[in-house]
Amino acid sequence: MATDLADMTPLADCSQCNYRETLLPSGACKPSDCCVVEDNGRQIDRFFRANLGLAADYRQDGFLERRAIAARYLVLDRESQKQTKSGEKPGPN
Ligand SMILES: [Zn+2]
After folding, report:
1. Residue 61 vs residues 43, 48, 77: alpha-carbon distances, Å
2. Would you state the pLDDT for residue 93?
3. pLDDT tens per residue across span 29-82
4. Where are the domains of the chain?
5. Dist. CA 17 → ligand 1 center (Å)
6. Distances (CA, A) of 15 to 68, 73, 92
7. For ion ligand 1, residues whose CB falls within 5 Å
8. Which residue has the higher pLDDT, 22 or 91?
9. Per-residue pLDDT band at 15 (split at 50, 70, 90)
10. CA of 22 to the centre of ligand 1 (A)
């Protein structure tokens, strides 16, 4: 079989990441840039910004910073759901 170029796409080390099979190939998780397993606030923040729906899974996380960032995005997620339900757009701030 010929070597398929797509199979050779290098994926950075994300061996501890729950999303290496799902988000990583699609680019929604980028090790050293936007990844939830890194104990790095900026990366966690980027991760939840890109994957808002996953914040709820980290409400009980053992790492304080991850929990705090997840909580912030949970609020945003809830607000966006409220807006969807009511069908009304919020006025300009
Ligand atoms: Zn990752």
Report:
1. 16, 14, 18
2. 58
3. 888 889 998 889 999 999 999 999 999 999 999 999 999 999 999 998 888 888
4. 31-84
5. 4
6. 24, 25, 43
7. 14, 17, 29, 35
8. 22
9. confident
10. 10
Supply 3's token pair.
């070597």
User: Do 89 and 67 contact (CB within 8 A), yes or no?
Assistant: no
CA 86 to ligand 1 centroid distance, Å: 34
Average pLDDT over residues 10-37: 81
Ligand 1 center from residue 77 Cα (angstroms): 21
Instruction: State the distance from the centre of ligand 1 to the C-alpha of 20, rounded, in angstroms.
Output: 6
CA of 1 to the centre of ligand 1 (A): 31
Residue with tokens 């050779």: 8
